[in-house]
Amino acid sequence: MIRSWSRDIVVLGGGLSGLRAASEAAVQGASVTLLEKQDQIGGSSALSAGMYWTAPDLASYRQRIPHGDQVLATRILAGYEADLAAIRASGVYVDAEATLGVMGFGRGYSFDVKSYLRVLENRLLQSHGEVHTSVRIRSVTPSGTRRFCLETESADGRHEIHTDAIILATGGFQASPEHRAAHMPEAGADLLLRANEGSEGDGLNLAVSLGAALAGDLATFYGHLVPHPVAGFTPDRFMLFSQYYSNHGILVAADGRRICEESRGDEILNQDLAEVDGMTAFLIFDEEVRSTFGVSEPFANFGRVDRFAFAVKGGARHAQAETLEELVQQLGELGVDAAQLTKTLSGDVEVSSLARRVSRSEPPSARQLEKLRKQPFYALEVQPAITFTLGGIAIDDSTAVLSTVGERIEGVYAVGADVGGFSNYGYAGGLAPAHITGTIAGSTAARFVTQARANTAQRLVVAAAKEGQTSC
After folding, report:
1. What 3-state DSSP class applies to 227?
2. What value does the mean pLDDT take over residues 268-274?
3. What superkingdom heads the lineage (predicted)?
């Protein structure tokens, strides 16, 4: 027997955006059920460094993400301070001073994200909301009593939830090889996953089934370069293996040529390398970089680690030499075209023939070579890794999902990494946009279902009046 029950709002996904949306809606009086497909809440947010950051203003956003959704960006940036204040008011640790220059241009605050996820869960439960883990969505269809009927499956069987509103917070589609192959044909299905395994595009699938449009470049994604090969690449080591400092070296493909301008940032190089045959390259840098940027904290309170040494211990191919000439010889033995690499180090900036898509990338500059000056010199083989996708579901600035003809799909909202277009090749943060869109969606959905209840009550009153007139 299929158990059936009714709720005002169902939130799919228990990461930061989903928990924020669910708790916000519940506090405002809606009956809310949150469903998480994994066996615990948190998603990729629980694996993050806990940096609440984004662009400091719209001008900076436009410069970094010229093809981003500026209407959505305006709404998200406008909510930054209020949502930061909400996190502070929860009582969890938040840095007193801002970290400037996050990812080269952003502004943010480090906070205890794991504790805050528990705060949001408790806030939801105290407001009579529900949380169910290890639940999968099988289908969504029209409901006879509410707007939608969600059929779910868990260890205790199948269930139906009738609801007037659905908030999609499933975290993107990066964990699905099939989706990656379809939307990221250059990178394909072999891209290394640097995130939780549950974000398989469930929100995207459901939205499309309801007629939703897609937004942003679905081939773009956020992540960081990690060593190749890499052993023990477990969630607790994702950040330890990440080579955040790659913008201070040069990135050389097997043909001995560079693939792009490295100074733009590791999260950009990560995407560029995904479009190079073989998806591997050698990151070359000097002792000054290794001993400063290579061991510095990428985020406040993260801790210092020698990333080169950690990568070598993890099995990465590498080289180390007192001179660049010796380094070239060692890399030649590892399969790099030594003759061309010598020319590259002498100033040749022609783009690698192995790079399949360079039209959106800034070509290499000779000035980056000036950073190779202090011996010894190092080379580390790296590969791209994906944390979450940047393209996804189209929404308006209220987080309402838009149809393929640009109209709102009533009662359906999307938040966090399920949303497409806020970041688009350039990256403007994960936790802050997730939290802010969650806040917006929770409030918007709560107002929607309140109005839906009022409309239903009015229809019942009218129907009763008509019935009374008829009986007379």
Report:
1. strand
2. 94
3. Bacteria
pLDDT in tens, 157-202: 899 999 999 999 999 999 999 999 999 887 767 899 999 999 999 9
Mean predicted confidence (pLDDT) in 278-286: 96
User: Residue written as tokens 């955040």?
Assistant: 244
Measuring CA to CA, how many Å separate 30 from each of 88, 129, 165, 408, 464? Answer: 24, 9, 10, 21, 26
Pairwise CA distance, residues 114 & 16, whole Å: 10
Q: Which residues contact 215 (CB under 8 A, 6 or more apart)?
A: 69, 391, 392, 393, 394, 395, 402, 419, 420, 421
pLDDT of residue 471: 39
Phi, psi of 220 (to 5 degrees): -95, 155
Among 330, 350, 383, where does a domain finish? 383
How far apart, in Å, are the Cα atoms of 234 and each of 231, 240, 314, 346, 383? 9, 10, 12, 39, 16
pLDDT more than 70, % of the chain: 93
Going by C-alpha positions, the residue among 418, 437, 426 that lies closest to residue 43 is: 418
Whether residue 181 sits in one domain with residue 50: yes
pLDDT of 363 reads 84
Give yes or no: residues 83 and 154 share one domain: yes
Q: Which residue has the tokens 């409030």?
A: 443
Residue type, 46: A
Q: Rounded distance, CA 282 to CA 294, Å?
A: 15
How many contiguous H segments (helices) and E segments (strands) does the chain have? 14, 22
Which residue, 326, 324, 328, 285, is CA-closest to 306? 285
Residue whose C-alpha is closest to residue 18's, from 170, 181, 199, 203: 170
> What is the CA angle 438-439-443, rounded to 5?
115
Rg (CA), the chain: 25
Q: Which of 11, 114, 16 is nearest to 388 (CA)?
A: 16
Residues 40 and 156 in one domain: yes
